[in-house]
């Protein structure tokens, strides 16, 4: 007579149908998206073929500065028809890079922008401007991610180094990122989005009202007016 094998619950030992995403995994974008879709309550990025699963977000080191930059960008797009803003939107850049930048600012494709919304609702191609909140200069935002944005043609890249109390605003020139200068007035002025002026001292001390106030002259400038007209002509 055959003897039945003792029952054992081996279900937990079976490998999952779709492996979970883990920091350090090296994946193609297609495999990254497959695993991402199968996960739950997860925020992850693919940068230069490497997975970065994001940890819990600290308010002082990330949440607050992120919100302040969003308020400043929001004031700009409200006065600039033909532009679009995103908060942690997924970007399909290339086969090894699918980041979720903290903030992006783009020109609508209908107005001549370099990115578009694909059939899945994601952004394909490089937005004109990306902003990231980083802890310090050691962050991958200023290394691998910077290189990914540069190589894919993101024209301007702003990094707020919270612990260092510094703002780095880069512009793409001849395939390289160069820092935009801080003027004697303390302003940095975008070259890609006329009128997008940033009072660095106000932003670093968390004074959104002052940052928006310093933006107003930019929105009234002749260059911003010409930019808005040029976007309207593209439609």
What is the number of E strands?
Answer: 13
The DSSP helix count reads 6
The CATH superfamily name is tt1808, chain A
CATH architecture: Alpha-Beta Complex
Low-confidence runs of at least 5 consecutive residues: 1-11
Q: In terms of structural class, how would the helical and strand content be classed?
A: alpha+beta
| Estimated helix fraction | 25-40%
CATH class division: Alpha Beta
Question: What proportion of the residues form beta strands (DSSP E)?
Answer: 15-25%
Distance between the termini: 82 Å
Q: Major sheet, described briefly?
A: 6 strands, mixed
Counting structural domains, the number is 1
Shape assignment: globular
Give structural notes.
The chain contains six helices and 13 strands. It has a six-stranded mixed sheet with strand order 3-5-8-9-10-11, sandwiched between helices. The protein has a three-stranded mixed sheet with strand order 4-7-6, with no helix packed on it. Strands 1-2 form a two-stranded antiparallel sheet. 33% of the residues are buried. The protein has one domain: tt1808, chain A. By secondary structure, the protein is of the alpha+beta class.
């Amino acid at each position: 007579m055959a003897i039945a094998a003792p029952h054992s619950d081996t279900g937990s030992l079976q490998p999952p149908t779709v492996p979970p995403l883990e920091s350090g995994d090296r994946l193609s974008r297609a495999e990254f998206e497959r695993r991402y879709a199968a996960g739950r309550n997860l925020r992850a990025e693919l940068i230069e073929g490497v997975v970065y699963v994001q940890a819990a977000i600290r308010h002082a080191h990330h949440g607050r500065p992120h919100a302040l930059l969003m308020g400043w960008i929001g004031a700009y797009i409200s006065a600039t028809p033909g532009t679009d803003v995103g908060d942690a939107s997924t970007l399909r850049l290339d086969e090894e890079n699918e980041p979720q930048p903290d903030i992006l600012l783009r020109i609508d494709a209908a107005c001549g922008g370099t990115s578009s919304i694909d059939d899945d609702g994601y952004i394909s191609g490089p937005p004109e401007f990306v902003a990231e909140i980083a802890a310090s200069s050691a962050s991958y935002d200023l290394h691998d991610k910077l290189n990914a944005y540069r190589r894919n043609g993101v024209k301007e890249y702003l990094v707020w180094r919270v612990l260092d109390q510094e703002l780095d605003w880069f512009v793409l020139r001849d395939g390289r990122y160069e820092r935009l200068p801080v003027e004697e007035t303390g302003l940095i002025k975008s070259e890609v989005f006329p009128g997008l002026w940033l009072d660095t001292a106000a932003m670093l001390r968390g004074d959104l009202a002052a940052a928006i106030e310093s933006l107003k002259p930019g929105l009234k400038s002749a260059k911003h007016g010409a930019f808005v007209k040029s976007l309207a002509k593209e439609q």
